[in-house]
Amino acid sequence: MPKTETQDEKKTDANDGAEKEGGDEGIDRFDREQLHHFMREMLLYRRFEEKAEEAYAIGKIGGFCHLHIGQEAVALGFIGPLQEKDYVITAYRDHTQALAKGLEPGPVMAELFGRDGGVSRGKGGSMHIFGAEQRFMGGHGIVGAQVPLAAGMGWAIKYREEDQVCVCFLGDAAVNQGAFHEAMNMSAVWELPVIYVVENNEYGMGTAIERVSAVSIEERGEGYGVPTHSVNGQDIIETWSFVEDLVKEVRDGAGPQYVEARTYRFKGHSMSDPVSGTYRSKDEVEEKKEKEDPISVLRERLFDAEIMTQDELEALDEEARKVADEAVEFAEDSPFPSEEELYTHVYAELNEHGRLFMDGRDR
Ligand SMILES: Cc1ncc(C[n+]2csc(CCOP(=O)(O)OP(=O)(O)O)c2C)c(N)n1
Ligand SMILES: [Mg+2]
What we know:
Layout: H1 7-10, E1 12-13, H2 14-20, H3 32-57, H4 72-79, E2 87-89, H5 95-100, H6 105-112, H7 146-159, E3 166-171, H8 178-190, E4 194-200, H9 209-212, E5 228-232, H10 236-251, E6 257-262, H11 282-292, H12 294-304, H13 310-333, E7 357-358, E8 361-362
Parallel strand pairs: 1-5, 2-3, 3-4, 4-6, 5-6
Antiparallel strand pairs: 7-8
Helix pairs in contact: 2-10, 3-12, 3-13, 4-10, 6-13, 7-8
Magnesium ion binds at residues 171-173, 201, 203-204.
């Protein structure tokens, strides 16, 4: 993007983005198979996390566990349009993004259970889902920590003259971290191929965003000259359409992008936190669930367009429940890591220059 553009010109809404490409923002852009795929995926994410919630309640999962329930269309809409070679990095609310990037449900569930068959050998837990092969670069527990890492990945892509794109998810509270601002500035200066996606679910742990930010989430990216956009993250059709176009632009050299995905979490911040209480009312949550559940939003659109029947929906749901049940079985069948595992994967191994890094020093 030329640097002379004004902020207003740079700011787009999902509708503008789709119109700009000449595409149809509506359902006609997709064929029946794709639309059924959207439903299949989001049902899987929902049923998977409901199983995790159940397992947590009976002590099968320990430590922190943050559910993405209510935000599924953001995971699918931003990851689905990517290619296998593209990178994804995120915060601790990371289960559904991992599934969207192609990690298997069984090993992801086993990680939550702390088992040897988990994607991080049971040593990372819920907040540290990782899949190097699938280019899913975690799962990060420190708020905002993944943002400079994403800039680093963007820099590596550019340095190697490759054409991958990196998608970096962060929460609305993470835009108040210093690391976010440094990374945005460097990304803009070096024109890095990174799409920063702020999942604006309206709250940090229990603090409404307007109580801690003088400007809107959307405005946060503008000060750095990074094009900013806002998308309805509860509507998979709108989100996917917008992201598909944006990814093409970034792959073609448009540089960093900043997208607010307007969304909402239906559960508590983590397992020990209440769904509602002093920081938001029960009525607010109920209204959002009724009007903005991404699965119901898609269902209504597909039913209205006669692209899916009730029977087909039920069959997809049954399939999703089966996959989630099998993921739990896989986790249960996997042993706990042995004591020796405490000493493996602690230090980095040989890097591509043939150097061994231990304890941060060359050896
Ligand atoms: C540097 C740092 N400060 C504080 C915390 C504690 N903490 C964990 S999650 C969280 C809120 C983050 O909210 P947001 O970025 O909006 O993400 P969401 O949980 O809504 O997905 C806080 C303050 C932390 N993990 N890291
Ligand atoms: Mg939040």
